[in-house]
Design goal:
Layout (H helix, E strand, L loop, with lengths): L5 E6 L4 E8 L3 E9 L1 H5 L6 H22 L9 E7 L3 H18 L3 E5 H12 L7 E6 L4 E8 L2 E7 L5 H11 L6 H9 L24 H17 L5 H26 L4 E5 L6 H13 L3 E3 L3 H4 L4 H12 L20
The site of 5'-O-[(R)-(carboxyoxy)(hydroxy)phosphoryl]adenosine has 19 residues, from α5 and α6.
């Protein structure tokens, strides 16, 4: 039997400063997240410069708390893992510098992790039986990817967004109807009071790849609808707009995900990323999976949005393959999935 592997993981790619201790990739011993959302809300979105500065302020404290909550010390760790891309370069650098310093001082191996690989691996935490191969729909603020997880750490990107990410569309539409940042959870909540059939928004198809997505047309349609109403002096129903927009996004996500699972002869679908915590998306996906005999996996909301436990989960499977980074590990803001 393999020795237990305990990993201290750090995540700072956007606006959450996070650290976690994870055993054998699936058991979370601590998961500390310091969110900057309130600070960025003042500006209507993430301000990179402020994010970097806040990460510097918080990171030591967050790491200490993660170790304390796990009732462990640095010496108990088998490796130090960190997100090194993609993300905001200044924000990533804070986590990478912290992880390098800790790993060097404590003489532990350093493992750089791809942020999206982390999101996908969040599914391993609460679904102990989930193993590749499976299809994963990654929907976050910066990414919309339909991925075939062929094996641990082996990914084939089937489709991606051609323009806005799903979360970005949620955030922009939320702003247009006056809900503020971050828009996703607010649109999710308001949609429950609206009629998803009230307004027919277009479902964008991308001609040359059935798995690709496009959300900028939908976003423009929502903005045009609001402008049109204002010009005609018609009062807009924000809940109906939120529900109808959300339905248009979800319909496309479900359709593409079902097609990918069927085309690749798979029977497992996982979802990941901040938008994967959307209650209507989870319901719609669950229903579609049930109707098609597909097993559906999703992380709890706390593991959908940015966190370090997911980085610890991904890092474990990297260590099993012998992946280890040198002291020259750098932040790579546009790191591609599958690159090392
Ligand atoms: O994965 P994440 O925390 O950060 C990135 O890696 O981008 O995703 C953040 C995104 C934001 O756009 C946020 O509005 C969206 O996820 N989001 C949601 C919900 N919760 C967060 N979108 C729709 N419904 C939600 N409940
Ligand atoms: Zn993320």
């Amino acid at each position: 039997m393999e020795k237990n592997k305990v990993i201290l993981a750090i995540e700072s790619s956007c606006d959450e400063t996070a650290a976690a201790v994870v055993r054998n990739g699936r058991e979370v011993l601590s998961n500390v997240i310091s969110s900057q959302i309130e600070l960025h809300t003042l500006y209507g979105g993430v301000v990179p410069e402020i994010a970097s500065r806040k990460h510097i302020e918080k990171i030591n404290q967050v790491v200490e708390e993660a170790l304390k909550e796990a009732n462990m010390t640095l010496q108990d760790m088998d490796a130090i893992a960190v997100t090194y891309g993609p993300g905001l370069v200044g924000a990533l650098l804070v986590g990478v510098a912290e992880a390098k310093a800790i790993a060097f001082a404590a003489e532990k191996p350093l493992i750089g992790v791809h942020h999206i690989e982390g999101h996908i691996s969040a599914n391993y935490i609460e679904n102990k039986e989930l193993e590749p191969p499976f299809i994963c729909l990654v929907v976050s603020g910066g990414h919309t990817h339909l991925v075939r997880v062929a094996d641990y750490g082996v990914y084939e990107i089937l489709g991606r967004t051609r323009d806005d990410a799903a979360g970005e569309a949620f955030d922009k539409v939320a702003r247009a109807i006056g809900l503020g940042y971050p828009g996703g959870p607010k649109v999710d909540k308001l949609s429950k009071e609206g009629d998803p059939q009230a307004i027919k928004f277009p479902k964008a198809k991308v001609a040359d790849n059935a798995y690709d997505f496009s959300f900028s047309g939908l976003k423009s349609a929502v903005l045009n609808y609001i402008n049109g109403c204002q010009m005609k002096g018609i009062e807009i129903n924000r809940a109906d707009i939120a529900a109808s927009f959300q339905k248009a996004v979800i319909d496309v996500l479900v359709e593409h995900a079902m097609k990918a699972v069927k085309d690749f002869g798979n029977d497992k679908l996982a979802i990941a990323g901040g938008v994967a915590s959307n209650s209507s998306l989870r319901q719609a996906m669950e229903q579609a999976c049930r109707e098609n005999g597909i097993k559906f996996y999703h992380p709890s909301p706390i593991y959908c949005t940015d966190n370090a436990a997911m980085i610890g989960a991904a890092a474990y499977y990297e260590t099993l393959k012998g992946v280890e980074h040198g002291w020259d590990l750098n932040a790579v803001p546009n790191l591609k999935l599958g690159e090392r």
